[in-house]
Design a protein that fits this description.
Blueprint (H helix, E strand, L loop, with lengths): L2 E2 L20 E6 L11 H9 L4 E7 L5 H13 L4 E6 L2 H14 L7 E5 H6 L6 H21 E3 L3 E7 L2 E13 L5 H6 L1 H13 L3 H4 L2 H18 L5 E11 L1
Parallel strand pairs: 2-3, 2-4, 4-5
Antiparallel strand pairs: 1-3, 6-8, 7-8, 8-9
Helix pairs in contact: 1-5, 2-3, 7-9
The structure holds iron/sulfur cluster.
Length: 247
């Protein structure tokens, strides 16, 4: 693959024996041919990111969306036991689904993937300031890594809710943002209780209570309260709905 500044498996804690709450995040920074790297110093971004907490792979890619690179990313996720993926490239509108697909093919939850748009927001927006564009890119990619470190995406919940006199199905995909990365192991250990509490809560709702903006905001507050009642080592600070479908 590509130009790598990762720390490499040999230097990493063994994920099978490592008991601390470390994440294993891979960061891939795309040249987009020269669309990005003509203006942003992608090697500097790579080097800045390799020392971020929980980043175990930091690489640049000539064309991240090419078939060959996607295969190499799948391999890297599996070889390095990555539990989070960040790609710094173009708009999520263009390739979010592509890289969620990469995650899925590597058996990684696709919602553990974060896309950072450095092409439109850095390269194309600051063609006359390469240094500034590079610093902005470093900041945005760091923010993407921070989001990935603190997030725990759940498998989707499908529950029966009552609406218009009929039974309807709600498919809800939730992501927790924790106050501290140390909370992730407890969330994972308590997933059955958390899912049970969420199913009971959602099943108690009328569809009309949760479909508008205000209803969704109140539902998030209810979920936050239920989840934090169950957790002991820290707090979930926000709840994100990444899919909300009623049928
Ligand atoms: S992933 Fe986006 S930024 Fe990278 S090569 Fe493909 S289109 Fe260009």
């Amino acid at each position: 693959m590509s130009d790598q500044a990762g720390t490499g498996l040999a230097e990493q804690a063994d994920p099978d024996t490592d008991t601390c709450a470390q994440r294993r995040i891979g960061v891939f920074i795309c040249h987009c041919g020269g669309n990005i790297s003509d203006y942003v110093d992608v090697a500097k971004v790579r080097d800045a990111l390799k020392d971020e907490p929980d980043v175990v792979v930091s690489e640049t890619e000539l064309f991240a969306c090419s078939d060959g690179t996607q295969k190499e990313m799948v391999q890297a996720i599996q070889d390095e036991n990555l539990d989070g993926l960040v790609v710094a490239s173009c708009s999520p509108k263009l390739h979010q689904i592509t890289f969620q697909g990469v995650s899925k093919r590597a058996d990684l939850n696709p919602y553990s993937y974060t896309q950072v748009n450095v092409r439109e927001q850095c390269s194309w927006a600051h063609t006359d300031d390469h240094e500034g564009a590079t610093e902005k890119a470093i900041g945005l990619v760091r923010a993407g890594v921070a989001k990935t470190r603190l997030s725990t995406p759940l498998e989707p919940l499908v529950v029966n809710v009552t609406g218009d006199g009929y039974n309807r199905f709600l498919k809800l995909r939730i992501e927790f943002e924790a106050s501290d990365v140390e909370l992730k192991p407890e969330i994972e250990a308590r997933l059955p209780q958390l899912r049970d509490a969420l199913i009971v809560l959602l099943s108690s709702k009328q569809l009309s209570d949760i479909t508008d903006f205000e209803g969704k905001a109140l539902l998030k507050e209810d979920i936050l309260e239920r989840v934090n009642d169950l957790l002991e080592t820290g707090e979930v600070k926000s709840v994100l709905f990444t899919e909300f479908v009623v049928q």
